[in-house]
Amino acid sequence: MSEQSLEIHGLKPQTRGFTLIELLVVIAIIAILAAILFPVFAKVREKARQTSCLSNLKQISLAALQYGQDNNESYFPVRDWSVTPSQTWINMIYPYVKSSGVYKCPDDSSTALVGIPYTAGATFHDSYLYNNLFGNGWVAAFGNTPGHTGFYSTLQSQITKPASTVFFCDGGAQSTTTAPYVTSSSPLKSAAYILVDPTAAGGYASEPDGTGSGQNGDAAAPAVRHTGFVNIAFADGHAKAMRPEDFYYPNSPWLDPTTGG
Are 105 and 128 in contact (CB under 8 A)? Predict the structure, then answer.
């Protein structure tokens, strides 16, 4: 019988609703789709943060190269003791970077400042480490011997394989003195700005922050922030991500400007 004939006889057509089972099936499908898509969205967001971090490192490395061109092709020390107060590399290339935001990795939750008392006129939060062998080689060579105040900066002409020599990287974790040296669960130092070998220079990369004897918060290992990878800027100006075990280990050629990886 048609709906029109039902109305003529005073009867209304019945409308059929969803059953409980049908509703539960729909909810289950939505839950399954959410479980599949949410991790995808999280990975996309993390990839965007990693890309932003790579951009920061590329800008820092290009600023360092510009500094070298303006200073007889010589890189800057990790810390300049010739001025008062002394300055870190962060301040020395700031005129070329011109933005404190470039020093901040989007995946770095720390807000600690590098600057007091090492800088003149500005303080920054720094997420990145400068390879010690570019700007303060005596620390690795002499183990920061008390009373030894000399340092040297690497010349651009001394770099044999710039495309495979670590210049700057995500930082800075507290390493161990045995393999795997640093992982994504390694504790972080709050205000490190120097990259050192995990076993050289008195083991400064493996020492915790603090003011006690034998502790050093300035030197550290790479921080594994990006799903098992470390972002790196190389001496030729390009940046890419690498797994820490592929480049960070004792006497690694990747850290040595005279050899390269």
Answer: yes
pLDDT tens per residue across span 54-88: 999 999 999 999 988 888 887 888 877 666 677 78
pTM score of the predicted model = 0.76
For the cut 80, the answer to whether the pLDDT of residue 111 exceeds it is: no
Q: Nearest Cα to 118, choosing from 149, 79, 157, 82? A: 79
The beta strands (E) that lie in 108-197 are given as 128-131, 166-173, 194-195
User: Rounded distance, CA 49 to CA 44, Å?
Assistant: 9
Locus of tokens 């959410």: 34
- The CA distance from 222 to 184, in Å, is 10
Bridge pairing between strands 230-234 and 166-173 = antiparallel
Cα torsion 248, 179, 206, 195 to 10°: value is 0
The DSSP code sequence of 22-39 is HHHHHHHHHHHHHHHHHH
Contacts of 237 (CB under 8 A, 6+ apart): 58, 61, 62, 65
Distance of alpha carbon 47 from its chain centroid, rounded? 13
CB 249 within 8 A of CB 181: yes
Give dist(CA 71, CA 193) in Å, integer.
22
Tokens representing 137 are: 């080689």
- The SS3 of residue 141 is helix
* SS3 of residue 233 by DSSP: strand
User: How many whole angstroms separate alpha carbon 119 and alpha carbon 121?
Assistant: 6
